[in-house]
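Minutes, methods subgroup
Present: GH (chair), OT, SY

1. OT presented the first of two proteins processed in the latest run. Sequence and structure tokens recorded below as shown on screen.
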Amino acid sequence: MSSLIRKVISTAKAPAAIGPYRTIYISGQLGMDPSNGQLVPGGVAEEAKQALTNMGEILKAAGCDFTNVVKTTVLLADINDFNTVNEIYKQEAMWRLKQWPSKDLSKQHHYNLTMNEVFTLTAYKKRRKIGVNK
């Protein structure tokens, strides 16, 4: 893997950040079974369920869950799968939220593998207050 180059960018022509952010980015999640690295069988619905399960596990490893998600992007191989994927999204990930995060669903033209969708999401990890055990 190539090394990641990090560079802080700031300018006097824009306000400085108002505080430290704890943003988590999860990208390129497919409906792959982590035990064998293969797409799960069953088509778009099963792939969407598995991709959301995978993202849930990554969020858990970061000390978060889907309630921390502020934005989700789903790139579809076939725009006709929109309703199916949207319904899976509602059932599998967002059922416990009072308010849904921002979501983009769009058609993607280029894939390296034969998959039906690719998910990315952005989450924000809240800071714990000193002396609070929550």
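2. SY then presented the second protein from the same run.
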Amino acid sequence: MNLLIALRPHIEIGYAFLDFVKGVAGAFVDLPNAQINITQLSATNVNAHCETKASTPPDEVAFNNLYQNLTHIASSVGIVAGLDLHLKVNMPLLPDLKFNWPMTLPMMDVPMPTAYLVFQKDNTSGEAFAPAQEIIASVSRQNKKNAAGGLVNPLASESGLWAVCLWKIFMVGLGL
């Protein structure tokens, strides 16, 4: 999905000669031109940085089992300027001639930071997107802990730990 948002002021100057020839010339500028491109990628083909991979590293196998898709979000901001010319000729015995000539001048485009996200359905704070690199690191830590014989703790994630800490602070504040 590609989304483009821009404010386009447009200035035109027109000319008419006895209703036979009408011409309009104008200039426009997109101030600013914001573009967002959202792409869904398969986690089996790309890593957490959305780079294609030949094989899955051992620490990403559990991640691929939990999350099958990555969402790649790329955005940019720029300025676009252009010119356009419209000419119409009405001759009594000839068909109407119409001429449109839009031209976009070289534009300035600044890429913004790119995000690689996974959608978590079982997040402690509800459904949400999370950065793929953090989730892979969390799944890797959990797998290493499980392989070393540690207990699985559903509150081991950082967001779960913060929720428990905030709940305890709230309860202490109430005097319970």
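Chair's summary of item 2: Residues 151-162 have pLDDT under 50 and may be disordered.
Next meeting: continue with the remaining queue.
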